[in-house]
Amino acid sequence: MSGPAASDADGAPASGRPAIGRRTIGPREFDFDRQVAVMAIVNRTPDSFYDRGRTDALDLAVDAARRAIDEGADWIDIGGAKFAPGPAIPVAEEIDRVVPVVAALADSGAVISVDTFHAEVARAALAAGAHVINDTTGLHDPDMAAVVVETGAAIVITHSLAEPRTAYPKPSYGDVVGEVAAFLTDRVAHALARGVAPEQVIVDPGHDLNKHTLHSLELTRRLGEITALGYPTLVALSNKDFVGESLGRRDRGERVEGSIAAAVYCVLQGARIVRVHNVRETVDAMRMIEAIEGWREPVFLEHNR
């Protein structure tokens, strides 16, 4: 079982974990050996997991994104069709949902990603100014890798097992972490074989995606085995059911503290991008980790000086 890795004297990751170093993603440069990026979730879906349609209207979605940036988000992730089971969303409708938000944020200075598993949606969003495709299906669409190669965009490759928008009841694994790591290794190799550069790749173990609570807790506990793959690791933990079930039937609005605790645990094992709903609270937690680890200086020094 892996635990949080130690740090070298200068605050850089210990030699037991692959150094990722600097990555330029859209308008931002991140030093992922010493920095955590906070990705804010903005969904234009009437049935979204957390906000239940509160940002479905274009103006509300754009306002929510700009508010997240003001609260310190480095990155905005825009979704027009959720992964969870439900009726298929026509590609044209998904494009109509996400592209106007991307276009409105093109001058924001933040990294913009689009949460989609359709290559056609990805192509339209990237043309409108997005920088990253967040694919929760591990490149299920055979044309997705080609879009990434053509545009030079970054790609998040996520572990999941179900066909998009379909149920996957009672998931079973022999060793969930080993199987997730093997899946991600295979799908990254698939992308690289089609011309995607290693510098374009981000991985996500897919907490709660076709996994029950014990699976997600095991992934969290052994996340070091995922970060050891050597790619920037994104964790999408925010307000998920494994947090609520771990704490005791907590509703989605009562999982903030548990979500932040899980995010901190993952960052200490090498996760470097956290996808969240509660931006201000998470930004403070991530910046505090950076200060404790010696990766950044306090904003000011006054106490007992």
Polypeptide structure, described:
It is a single chain. The protein is an alpha/beta fold and 305 residues long. It has a single domain (22-292), classed as TIM Barrel (Alpha-Beta Barrel). Helix content is 36%, strand content 14%. The chain has helices at residues 58-70, 91-104, 119-128, 144-151, 176-193, 213-221, 224-227, 241-247, 256-267, 279-292, and strands at 22-25, 28-31, 37-43, 75-79, 111-115, 132-135, 154-158, 201-204, 234-235, 273-276. It has an eight-stranded parallel sheet. Strands 1-2 form a two-stranded antiparallel sheet. The protein is globular and about 60 Å long. Mean pLDDT is 92; it is low at 1-15.
Spell out the helices and strands N to C.
EEEHEHEHEHEHEHHEHHEH
In the sheet with the most strands, the strands line up as 8-7-6-5-4-3-10-9
First and last CA, distance: 42 Å
| Low-confidence segments | 1-15
- Taking Cα atoms only, what radius of gyration do you get, to the nearest Å? 18 Å
How many β-strand runs?
10
- Main sheet characteristics: 8 strands, parallel
Q: Any idea what the CATH superfamily is called?
A: Dihydropteroate synthase-like
Query: In percent, how helical is the residue content?
Result: 25-40%
Q: So how many helices?
A: 10
* CATH architecture grouping: Alpha-Beta Barrel
% residues in beta strands: 5-15%
Quick structural overview:
This protein is of the alpha/beta class and 305 residues long. The chain has ten helices and ten strands.
Secondary-structure map with pairings?
Blueprint lengths: L21 E4 L2 E4 L5 E7 L14 H13 L4 E5 L11 H14 L6 E5 L3 H10 L3 E4 L8 H8 L2 E5 L17 H18 L7 E4 L8 H9 L2 H4 L6 E2 L5 H7 L8 H12 L5 E4 L2 H14 L13
Parallel strand pairs: 3-4, 3-10, 4-5, 5-6, 6-7, 7-8, 9-10
Antiparallel strand pairs: 1-2
